[in-house]
Amino acid sequence: MRFGRLDLNLLVALDALLTERSVSLAADKLCLSQSATSSALGRLRDYFGDELLVVKGRNMILTSRAEELIEPVRAVLEQIRTTITVAPPFDPATADRQIRIMASDYSTQVLLSHALALMEKEAPGIRFEIQPMNDSPVETLERGYIDLLLTIDYAISTDHPSQVLFEDDYVVLGWEDNPAMQGEMTRELYFQLGHVTARFGKARVAAFDEWFVKRQKQQRRVEVVAPTFLSLAGLVIGTNRIATVHRRMAETFARNLPLVTRETPFTIPPIREAVQWHVSNTNDPALRWVVERLAQCSEGRAPTPNEDAQSKRDEVEMAFRMSQQPAN
Q1: Which long-range contacts does 266-270 make (Cβ < 8 Å, 24+ apart)?
Q2: Rounded distance between C-alpha atoms, residue 82 and residue 61, angstroms
Q3: How does strand 242-246 pair with strand 194-200?
Q4: Which of 44, 152, 180, 211 is the most exposed place for a label (fewest CB within 10 A)?
Q5: CA–CA gap between residue 304 and residue 323 (Å, rounded)
Q6: Which CATH number does the domain 2-85 belong to among 1.10.3470.10, 3.90.1300.10, 3.40.50.300, 1.10.10.10?
C-alpha cells in the first residue's frame, strides 16, 4: 500500500533499521533475508533522498536525517498498533453503544426486563433496542439489522455461535375463580375446556406447546387465538378458559393478577432459551459482556462487579471461543 510515493510497508523496515543500525540485525528482527532488507534500505534512500545509514569503520551510523526520523516513525507505528492492531479495552461504565436485540414478549418479560435494569447500573451509556420477532429472525441477524437474537434453541442457526441461557417448562394457567382450576388438572378436564393460545407472524406460527399437544391424539378446543404471550393472561381472566403457558411467565402473572397455575396433565418437553450473535461479532467485547450478563440473570441472580460468577463467565467465554474455530 502506498501513501503518495511511499510504500507504507517500508515504515516497519525503516523502524528496524533505525533501531538496530545494522542491515543484518534488522533483517533478523523483520524475519527477512539480508538482501531483501538491503533492497528495502535502497528504496528508503531513494524516497528520502538521503543515505540514512552510512558505514563508518566496522559499524553503520545514522545520518542527521535518519536521527530526525526515529521518533516520528516510531510514533506512527505505535499509533497504528494502539488504534488498529490492539482493540481498546471494554469498560461498561464508559461504553457508548446501541445494541439491538430481537426477542419475543416472553423473553422480554422473563429475562430482558430484569437484565436490562441491572445492566443500566453498570453501563448507563449502553442503549438497547428490542425488536419483535418476525418470520425470518436468522435472516435479520445475518443482514445486520440486529446484534443479538433471543429465541428457543431449535429456531437458531448452526451457521452462527450461540449460548443456551435457561430452560423453562409449561403449566396450565387459569382465572382463580374458574371452577376447573380449584383442583388438580386432569387430562380429561384439560381437553374438555376451552383454550387460549398464541400464534405469531404472517404465517401464524403456533407456539411451541401446541406442537406437542397435538401428539396427545386428542384435539383441544382453541377458542381464542392471541398475537402475543403477554395477552394470554388477560384473555383467561373472568372466563372458564385456560392457557398453556411457560412456567416463568405464568408465575409472574400469578403474582400480580387473579390467576392460578396447575401442572399439565401430560409431559411437554421444556424449551431451551438461547442467545445468538453473528459470527463476525465474535470478538465484540460489548456483546460478550451483554451475553454474560444475560446468562447470569437467566439464573435469577443479580450480577455485581465483585460477584463470583466464574462458571457462567466460562460458559460464555467458551461459546465465543468455539465460534472462532474453523468448521470441520
Answers
A1: 266/187, 266/190, 266/216, 268/169, 268/170, 268/209, 268/212, 268/213, 268/244, 269/212, 270/167, 270/168, 270/169, 270/170
A2: 30
A3: parallel
A4: 211
A5: 27
A6: 1.10.10.10
Per the CB < 8 A criterion, the answer to whether 146 and 101 are in contact is yes
Q: How far apart are CA 280 and CA 144, in angstroms?
A: 10
Q: Which three cell numbers stand for residue 233?
A: 393472561
Burial code (b: 16+ CB inside 10 Å, e: under 16) for 130-157 equals: beebeeebbebbbeeebbbbbbbbeebb
- Mean pLDDT for the chain? 86
φ/ψ of 187, rounded to 5, equals: -60, -45
CA dist., res. 243 & res. 171, Å (int): 8
Cell (9 digits) for 287: 456483546
97-167+271-322 homologous superfamily = Periplasmic binding protein-like II (3.40.190.10)
Q: What is the pLDDT of residues 242-267, one digit of tens each?
A: 999 999 999 999 999 999 999 999 88
Q: Which residue has the cell 396450565?
A: 172
Residue 257, all three cell numbers = 393478577
Measure the CA–CA gap between 18 and 26, rounded to whole angstroms. Answer: 9
The torsion region of residue 300 among left (phi > 0), alpha (psi -120 to 50) and beta comes to left
CB-based burial, 182-213: b 16+ in 10 Å, e otherwise: eeebeeebbeebebbbbebeeeeebbbbbeeb
- Which residue matches cell numbers 481498546? 88
